[in-house]
Design goal:
By secondary structure, the chain is α+β, with helices and mostly antiparallel strands. It has helices spanning about 1-10, 10-55, 60-80, 85-100, 130-135, 275-320, 330-390, 395-420, 425-440, 460-480, 530-540, 570-580; strands at about 105-110, 115-120, 140-145, 150-165, 165-175, 195-200, 205, 235-240, 245-255, 255-265, 425, 450-455, 460, 490-500, 505-515, 545-550, 555-560. The chain is rod-shaped and about 190 Å long.
Length: about 575
């Protein structure tokens, strides 16, 4: 869900690029997989080519060694038949050596351990431990032998066992000078960087380089004997001169001689993996190009038009200015912009009609409240006429109290039609006017009663403002009636408080408190008079509770009520439905 929310907050172009990437990902993976298969096939082909070229490069060594082994096997039987005639045996060996330009020595060593016969001088090429090992094992062997007097004149020795009726009779040795192993030209110009042959003992038999430096190009810290296997193969290793090389191993004669070709890792035959990276780079470039194209398309064809529409909508929201000018959008965006302009015109027209209707309603309501106020003032004038003609003090008191209540209602209506908003009035202004009006009428001139008003702004609907004004009028009348004592005063407080209920909703309440000092004689039977009944009735209309206190010469009346929203009566709905019907 969190990932979905983050994706939804991305821009339209970014989401389109993400979808394109998701669509191209399988194609890219398939391309890489196919490239990997092709490269693997190329690698196998390159390996086979390396082995074939290495085997071709070692073809001369193979022919010489196989030819020497065959010739030694044939000469061995001939030399054994002449073992009783050493002169004839030496003559045959000398004739064989002179008749072949490939060999520099031919000699036979019988199994009996006698001197045998050979074509050269006996002491020129002494037998070594390897030959003794081959004789003891009665098997074919190859090794290198050097002339102490001429170290550069090294030879390859092929020691072949001779058998008669299945019985070992001796070894015939043929010496092949290393000069006979010339570089083999490979068709096409591809050939190993270096080529050596080595025996099953891990001894280098031949090399295209000087034998002393041949090991520099061989794998470092690797025994040649460990490379021997039945089948040809290739591998990569670091050479003794710390250069990474590729090597190709090829058996020449089973169990006797092997060839090892050395190749540079950057050889043309080994560059198949370059295609792998080319494919990845190509796929990345294709993805980048596709994403760029999608980005440009979204910017040019979609986002630019959407930004233009957003600017127009925001401008209309802030300034109510209808988009003007020629519509430059195309396709669906053109239709959308046409609809937005038409919608803006409709909204402006409807708002103008609504403002006219509201203004007309406010004018009518103000007129109604103004006329009600005038009517109440007319009633007040009539009451004044009655009051001037009244003779009885009780009658004058009753009429005077009635006049105060009428003037309290008139104050509410005057405040409503003078207010900018017709739905709410400031109760503090109404309370202040009623208090000032009551004080002006109820206290004689020069009175030393201190009037203290502490009124906080309280916004009320007319349904609460009416009973509150009548409540204040009655309470002020009572306070003016009973105020007295030393340092006499009347205090009027109106305040608001806010609390949070258990369900988290805020509740606003208003508190009205009117207190006054009292004289020595007070009428205690206040609960039986009309004023007390009216105070309780008006408090009940406000959904409040009247609290009175008379202690230490201070009388107070207070009530706390909730500041409620406008709640029309059911009769209003009945009348409205009747009008609609």
């Amino acid at each position: 869900m969190r990932l979905k929310n983050r994706f939804s907050r991305l821009g339209l172009a970014a989401r389109a690029m993400a979808f394109v990437t998701l669509a191209l990902l399988p194609l890219g993976l398939i391309a890489i997989w196919q490239t990997d298969r092709i490269i693997q096939n190329q690698s196998d082909t390159a390996e086979r080519a390396l082995l074939a070229i290495t085997e071709k490069a070692a073809a001369r060594e193979r022919r010489i060694i196989e030819r020497a082994i065959g010739a030694a096997a044939a000469m061995g039987n001939t030399a054994h038949s002449l073992k009783d005639d050493p002169a004839a045996c030496r003559s045959v060996m000398a004739s064989f050596e002179q008749g072949s330009a490939l060999y520099s020595f031919a000699g036979f060593t019988p199994a009996s351990g006698s001197a045998g016969c050979h074509s050269g001088q006996t002491g020129a090429y002494d037998d070594n431990a390897q030959f003794a090992e081959f004789v003891a094992e009665e098997r074919l062997g190859l090794y290198v032998k050097r002339d102490p007097e001429n170290p550069d004149a090294s030879v390859l020795v092929i020691a072949t066992p001779a058998f008669e009726a299945g019985r070992y009779v001796g070894h015939l040795r043929l010496h092949v000078p290393h000069a006979s192993f010339e570089t083999t030209e490979v068709f096409g110009g591809d050939r190993p960087l270096g080529l050596i042959t080595f025996s099953d003992k891990g001894e280098i038999l031949t090399s295209e380089r000087v034998l002393a430096t041949a090991r520099d190009s061989l794998p470092d810290n690797v025994d040649l004997q460990d490379l021997i296997a039945d089948d040809p193969y290739t591998f990569t290793a670091v050479s003794a001169n710390e250069i990474e090389r590729t090597y190709a191993f090829v058996p020449l004669t089973a169990g006797n001689a092997y060839a090892l070709g050395t190749w540079n890792t950057d050889a043309a035959l080994l560059q198949g993996e370059a295609g792998y990276w080319r494919t990845i780079i190509l796929a990345a470039l294709m993805w980048l190009g596709s994403v760029l194209v999608i980005f440009l398309i979204m910017q040019l064809l979609v986002i630019r038009g959407i930004k233009r529409l957003r600017t127009q909508v925001r401008s209309f929201r802030d300034t109510r200015t209808i988009p003007a000018g020629e519509i430059v959008a195309k396709g669906e965006l053109y239709d959308l912009e046409v609809d937005i302009v038409a919608m803006a015109e409709t909204i402006v027209r409807d708002e103008a009609e609504l403002e006219d209707a509201v203004h007309e309603k406010n004018v009518l309501l103000k007129e109604v409240h103004h006329r009600v106020k005038n009517n109440l003032q007319l009633i007040n004038s009539i009451i004044n006429m009655i009051l001037r003609g009244a003779k009885s003090p009780e009658t004058r008191t009753v009429v005077k109290r009635l006049q105060d209540r009428v003037m309290a209602l008139a104050s509410v209506h005057r405040t409503i039609y003078q207010a900018q908003s017709m739905d709410r009035v400031d109760a503090s202004e109404i309370v202040r006017e009623i208090v000032n009006q009551g004080v002006a009428i109820g206290l004689p001139r020069g009175s030393d009663v201190d009037i203290r008003c502490n009124l906080s702004p309280v916004s009320l609907y007319p349904d609460q403002a009416m009973p509150l004004s009548l409540l204040v009028s009655e309470a002020i009348t009572n306070a003016l009636k009973y105020v007295g004592g030393d340092n006499a005063f009347i205090a009027v407080d109106l305040s608001t408080t806010s609390t949070d209920d258990e369900d988290g909703t805020s509740r606003h309440t208003a508190t009205l408190r009117i207190a006054n000092t009292v004289g020595d004689t007070v009428d205690d039977d206040e609960g039986t008079g009309l004023g007390s009944q009216l105070l309780r009735a008006f408090t009940h209309q406000l959904d409040g509770e009247a609290v009175t206190s008379n202690h230490s010469g201070l009388y107070s009346f207070s009530t706390t009520f909730n500041i409620s929203a406008f709640n029309p009566e059911e009769s209003d709905f009945v009348e409205k439905r009747a009008e609609e019907d």
